[in-house]
Structures are given as structure tokens and as C-alpha cells.
Amino acid sequence: MELRPLGTSGLRLSLIGLGCNNFGGRIDLEATRKAIDATLAAGVNHLDTADIYGGGGKSEDLIGQCLGARRKDVVLATKYGKPMADNPSTTRGQRAYVLSAVEASLRRLRTDWIDLLYMHEPDPATPIEETLRAVEELVAAGKVRFLAGSNFSAGEIGDAVDAAKRLGVTGFVATQDEYSLLARGIEDALLPVLETHRLGLVPYFPLASGALSGKYRKGKPMPEGARLTGSANYTERYFSGTKADLVEALIAFAGQRGHTLLELALSWLAARPQVVSIITGATRPEQIEANVRAVGWKLNAEEMAEIDRITRPA
Q1: Are 207 and 262 in contact, with CB atoms under 8 Å apart?
Q2: CA of 177: how far to CAs of 181, 266, 275, in Å?
Q3: At residue 298, what are phi and psi to the nearest 5 degrees?
Q4: What are phi and psi of 13, to 5 degrees?
Q5: Which of 48, 114, 134, 120 shows the shortest CA–CA distance to 84?
Q6: Helix or strand holding residue 104 (H, E)
Q7: Measured between alpha carbons, how far is 48 from 32 in angstroms, rounded to an integer?
Q8: What is the CB neighbour count within 10 angstroms for residue 244?
Q9: Residue 296: which of 250, 252, 259 has the closest Cα?
Q10: Could you tell me if 150 and 173 are in contact, meaning their C-beta atoms sit under 8 angstroms apart?
Q11: H/E element, 17
Q12: What secondary structure does DSSP assign to 128-169, as a single string?
């Protein structure tokens, strides 16, 4: 599995990363262990979770139980900053919150350090300087290696970078944001900021909640038990009206070249220069193996231009 550098951090992440939001929710300890075993066997070194995943830290807890001595072999990322039932604070960028949230994650993950800590969303009520200073304490203590942002606007990322320079701290080395063939909104404002400041991009929802998996076809019954089938909101967002037409056009594009929609969706992201590691969810080992194989299509310039014409018409 190809490893890519994460911004200026020195970390190297596998091109495919395992999104662990299903752990403790959709799958139990045994299934989580199988997923992690298959992930490491496939050469994937990047595990991405959050304190809210699985509800009440369950995802972190299962990862901690499953990794054991293999902890040293992975780049372990987690997030803090979205509401937690046991910590009702609404100012989750404050020093006290950051320190307590990280200590709780470390306990659940059964580790002494977090490789990549994301602030899961901005806290407009707390100056970013306070957050950066708090994380710098954790870095100095060896509990966190690097900090990143998630779901920040281009302006908020720029402000965070400027603040880090004023304070003389490392600050953000990457961002995690939604990015896919059906969600290209970050290209106009955020991507130029990341390029300017040499920050890495870790995309989530690369398959648009499954709409780009190839399971959904316009005019055909929705597959039973699938994510979009059970969510009217996601169906409306990713597979209604012109979005369904777009999925069909992408299926045709891939099929004409002997590839699947899954291969197109992940290989297109892999071809974007700022993409470091693509967060892919999985509940079964075969899904992990399929995702790893899917990035083998090396799209050429003509194919990339045609994809632009399909997904970003003038």
C-alpha cells in the first residue's frame, strides 16, 4: 500500500485509511477485531476514529482492545470537539476541555500517545490561540504528535495557521473534509489555502455515503439494508434528481474503460495532488480488501478532464 507524507509532519499515511465510525455501533468487538486484522494485513497503517464514534467512546475502546502490541505499527488518529453526552460543555476549544478530552481518548485507546489529533469542528466561542496552546502542552508531554482540523472553512484554517505562526507552535498539519465526485465544494476556497500552507487533505465520505459504491442505480429498487436505503436525508443529498443521473454517467464512464464505479471514485481522489489518505469505512474484511484494490487505476490527464466535464459542467 502506497504511503504518502502528511503535510510537513513527517508522518506517512497509507493511501487508504480505515474509518472506524462503525466500531461499537454497527459492529461489535469480534467484527472490529476482524476488520483491524484485515486492515493491517492489507498494508493499511492509518486508523481514523473520534471520541463520538460508536457512542460514548465505544469505537476508541474497541480499537484499544484490538490493537495491543500492534499500536506501534499504525498511525492512530482521533478527534475531539463534537458534543459528548458525559461532557456537556459548548466551548470545546477551551484548554480544560481539550486536555480532559484527550486524556479520556488515551484511556479508551489504551495508548500513551495519539499520532494525529483532530479538532472535529471549530469552536467560535473560544479563540483558536487557546486551543493551539493547549495542544502544544499535550505535544510537549508526548501525548499528541500532531494537530489537524476537520470541517473548518478556508478562512478558519487560514486564521489557525496565522495564529500558530504568531505563537511559535506547529499548529495544523492537515484537514479532514468531505470530498468526492459528488461533493467537490472544497475545491474553490479550501484547497488553495491548503496548498499555500502545505497542509495535507484527508477526505471522508469518498463514496458519498455509498452512492458511489455502484450498489445504487437510477430507476431500480434500493438495496435492502444499505446506508442510503435507510436514510431519507442521505438519499436526498446524494442520490436524488440530477445526482442519480450523475452516478449513472460515472458508471458508464468507468464501465467503458473496464473499471467499476468504486475504482473510479477512489482512484480519482488518489489522483488529486493534495490527498494524503482516503478514509474508507468497512464492516467486513472483504470491503477493506476491495478498497485497497480500488486505487490501482491510474487515471490519465484526458480521463481526469473528462471526469471534470461530467461532474463540474460549465
Answers
A1: yes
A2: 13, 15, 11
A3: -95, 100
A4: -110, 145
A5: 120
A6: helix 95-109
A7: 13
A8: 17
A9: 259
A10: no
A11: strand 16-19
A12: HHHHHHHHHHHHHTTSEEEEEEES--HHHHHHHHHHHHHHTS
Domain containing residue 130: CATH number: 3.20.20.100
Does the model's pTM come out above 0.85?
A: yes
Helices (H) and strands (E) in the chain, counts: 11, 10
Residues recognised as catalytic = 53
Spatial separation of the C-alpha atoms in residues 46 and 43, rounded to whole Å: 9
Q: How far apart are CA 265 and CA 181, in angstroms?
A: 7
Nine cell digits for residue 180: 468526492
**186 and 176 Cβ atoms separated by less than 8 Å:** no
pLDDT in tens, 44-97: 999 999 999 999 899 999 999 999 999 999 999 999 998 887 776 778 999 999
Please answer whether residues 237 and 227 qualify as being in contact, where contact means their C-beta atoms are separated by less than 8 angstroms: no
- Give residue-wise pLDDT tens across range 125-149: 999 999 999 999 999 999 999 999 9
How do residues 167-199 score in pLDDT, each as one tens digit? 999 899 999 999 999 999 999 999 999 999 999
At position 275, the amino acid (one-letter code) is: V
Sign of the Cα torsion 224, 225, 227, 233 reads: positive
* Structural domain that includes position 75: 3-311
How far apart CA 187 and CA 220 sit, in angstroms, is 32
Q: How many CA atoms lie within 13 A of 58 on its CB side?
A: 15
- Count of domains forming the chain: 1
Residue with cell 445526482: 243
pLDDT of residue 107: 98
